[in-house]
From TrEMBL:
Protein name: 2-amino-4-hydroxy-6-hydroxymethyldihydropteridine pyrophosphokinase
Its job: Catalyzes the transfer of pyrophosphate from adenosine triphosphate (ATP) to 6-hydroxymethyl-7,8-dihydropterin, an enzymatic step in folate biosynthesis pathway.
Designated gene of the protein: folK
The species this protein was found in: Dyella halodurans
Enzyme class: transferase
Record lineage: Bacteria, Pseudomonadati, Pseudomonadota, Gammaproteobacteria, Lysobacterales
Regions crossing the membrane: none
Length: 160
């Protein structure tokens, strides 16, 4: 089993319900166990600013899936939630799932880079990741708690 951290986000429809349903979908993936989930956060949009705020979280799973198998499974969960990938980056979405990090795997190809190359820029990822693994060192980026301390988290709030 390999530990994997997965980012979850939604800002269309009932975003909170979409993220909670995605946790359940992750737990039902073959060869995968949901080990932990972060708090939910309401965060301002990133990239394209003219859109609703996001509900974001991070899941920790143990999986026998390879990185590409896990990515394909996440894309299938997104599609089942109504996500249409039309090439627009950082726009509104019913569900967005990203593999952030898989233990001991550093890779980059046309489909997937691990660890995710933009973690250090994103409070909406680092806040929930910090809930689960503040001391985690991301190869080439640093320790989660240090990366979070360097970011402005204004506008981000933990949801009850």
């Amino acid at each position: 089993m390999t530990a994997a951290f997965i980012a979850l986000g939604s800002n269309l429809g009932d975003a909170r319900a979409q993220v909670l349903a995605a946790f359940d979908a992750l737990a039902s993936l073959p060869g995968t166990q949901l080990r932990a989930r972060s708090q939910l956060y309401l965060t301002p949009p990133w990239g394209v600013l003219d859109q609703p705020s996001f509900v974001n979280a991070v899941a920790l799973v143990d999986t026998t899936l390879t990185p590409h198998e896990l990515l394909d499974a996440l894309l299938a969960i997104e599609r089942a939630a109504g996500r249409v990938r039309d090439g627009e980056r950082w726009g509104p979405r019913t569900l967005d799932l990203d593999v952030l990090h898989m233990d001991a795997i550093v890779m980059s190809d046309e489909r997937l880079s691990l660890p995710h190359p933009r973690i250090r820029e994103r409070a909406f990822v680092l806040l929930p990741l910090h809930d689960l693994a503040a001391e985690l060192v991301l190869p080439g980026q640093g320790r989660v708690k240090d990366l979070l301390a360097a970011l402005d988290v204004a506008g981000c709030e933990r949801l009850p």
